[in-house]
Structure formats: structure tokens, C-alpha cells
Amino acid sequence: MRFVPHFTDGQEYSHALGKIVCVGRNYIDHAKELDNPIPSEPLLFIKPSTCAVPLDAPIDAPFSQGTVHFETELALLIGEKLTHATDTEAEEAVVGIGVALDLTLRDVQSKLKEKGHPWEIAKGFDGACPLSAFLPLDRVPNWSALTFTLDIDGERRQSGEGSDMIFPVASLLSEMSRHFTLLPGDVVLTGTPAGVGELTKGSELHFTLTGGLDLTTRVVE
Ligand code: ZN
After folding, report:
1. What does the angle CA 155 – CA 75 – CA 171 come to, to the nearest 5 degrees?
2. Enclosing domain of residue 64
3. Looking at residue 179, what DSSP letter applies?
4. 11 within some domain
5. Residue 179: how many CA atoms within 13 Å on its side-chain side?
6. pLDDT tens digits, 3-34
7. What is the CA radius of gyration of the chain?
8. What is the Å distance from ligand 1's center to 23 Cα?
9. Cα dist. 176→23, 50, 186, 189 in Å?
10. CA spacing 20 to 30 A to 77: which of 38, 49, 115, 173?
């Protein structure tokens, strides 16, 4: 069954989910916590649409393959075709904002990185992108004022602000569109702030996003 993005009012988007384009290391604090250099251009990768599952359903992952890390990210729903877009065209193409988890098999990824191999099996497994409903946008928001949070079992674990992004939304999207055409129904994940950690079975996750998104979910036992 294909995943169809939906809005916070329950309405389904007119396009099924396409690809999920992601950026690694878009917050200085997170690059530092994983001992990675601060990039001079965005490190882009793609998760297939088969990764997507509703964020409010119980979260499952291939725990038998090693450590599963959560990365909480601002998610952008794309509503127009973007190829070599300008910053303005790019940000005007966003029709919704939500939160997503970029689930990562960190042990698997570390081994792949050591060998210089692609990361797909560490980040592209079924269920690797729990995705919230999207707050509909009728105008370009003040990206730098957007904040999102993740609490696990009542404790604040991640907190991100648009103003802390190394590559802000408009330039990130226009850069992506120089490498991959973005289509209506594609989703862009904008990178994770510091605080990533191991997803543990049975824990309760609470997410908020400026503008009214507030949801609680659970990791399977
Ligand atoms: Zn990520």
C-alpha cells in the first residue's frame, strides 16, 4: 500500500508520497556529537518511499541488527516540481511542515562508513521514516522561528530551531533541486539537531512543532 501524506485536519494530500530527500549534518551541534566535520555543502541522501509509516502508530525497527538511533527532523512536504530552483521558488513550493524520525541502524552505518560504502541499508529499511501529519502552509513561514522538540519518557532529548540550520530551508531545497528533481509528494527531511540516541523498546515519544503539532507515540515492546 502506498503511503499518502495527510494534513493535520485529516485531509489526504493529492499525491502519494514520493522520495524522501535528506541532509546529514545540518546542525553544528549534531555534527560535533558524531565527531563529523562541519560540511561546506549539504550531504544529501535519499530514503525510499517504502520507509514511511505514520508517526502516531507504534514504532518498530530491525532491532536485531544492532543499535537503532532516533533523529528528529523538520519534514517539508513538496507541492511543486523543482529543478534547478531559485531559493524563492524552492521555499514557495513547500505546502506542509511536519516532524519525522530519520531512523538509523547506527552500528550498520558505522561499518558501511568505514568501508566507504553507501548507507542505504542503514537508513532505507521499511519503517525507517515515521512521518507526522503536515500542518498546511498557505504562505512561507518564518523558517528561522520554527522549533520542534522530542521528549522521551518525559525527558527533553532533542530541540531544534530553524535558525540553527547550517543550510537554511530555502537554500537547502534549491541545492537539492540542482541534484534531484523534487516532485509533488516528495518529502524533505532537514537534518537533526544534537541529542540523537538509541531508540529503546517500550519508550514513549512526545513530539511538538511550532504551529500546533503535538503528538505522542510509543516504540513497540
Ligand atoms: Zn537524519
Report:
1. 120
2. 20-218
3. H
4. no
5. 14
6. 999 999 999 999 999 999 999 989 988 778 87
7. 16
8. 6
9. 9, 21, 12, 11
10. 38
